[in-house]
Amino acid sequence: GQVQFSNAVGNQIEVGAKAVFLDGRGTATLAAYRIVKTGLLAQLTPTSPIEQVGQRSAKGIEAAVSIDLPRGFGFDANGSVLNARFDDFLSGTANYAGNTPPDVPETMANLWLRWTATPTVQARAGLRYVGRRFSDNANDFRIPGYVTVDTTWSYAVTPRVAVDLHVYNLFDAAYAINSYGVQQWVLGRPRAVDVSLRAGF
Fold first, then answer.
1. Measuring CA to CA, which residue among 107, 104, 125, 105 is closest to residue 115?
2. Which residues are 193's β-sheet partners?
3. What pLDDT score was predicted for residue 41?
4. How far apart are CA 144 and CA 191, in angstroms?
5. Residue 3: what pLDDT?
6. Rounded distance, CA 12 to CA 16, Å?
7. Is the pTM of this model over 0.85?
8. DSSP labels, 60-79
9. Tell me, what DSSP letter sits at residue 44?
């Protein structure tokens, strides 16, 4: 039943800057953007009717920094802040103009610490933050934001073969990655340990 709708159209404007510092050991980027899309199709649940959005837009800022520190240490960080909204969206008698589209976190950040202990041993620890989201067009129901921590340890058995140990959600945080319907949450992965063998050819 999508043939009755017109095609979606979009345009984007983006500006950015990049800097290198600490004699090349550090890099930083900053970008600002605005995206406007018209004619997007919206469907809140798999059984909901398909509707067409008049206009949806987002404007935001993204930043990233990476620094190599002495003794094999370093860190990488990035984050974004955006304002997403329906500019024009009528659904029956409801007017959602000005509301935030569902399942769009308006703040996100990542921080990774890394350590190359020896040429064959590497370790990483990462913190991921995802801000709150709405699960409905009316913005009556919110999915809470969350923070998780992951770690990785890698050992190079040979120059082409490595063993990786991944610990996901180290502190076993309970969090929702998305929603099914308005008030039902799909939970993220609990604490888990994966061991993998990586080979290059």
1. 125
2. 167
3. 85
4. 19
5. 53
6. 13
7. yes
8. EEEEEEEEE-GGGEEEEEEE
9. S
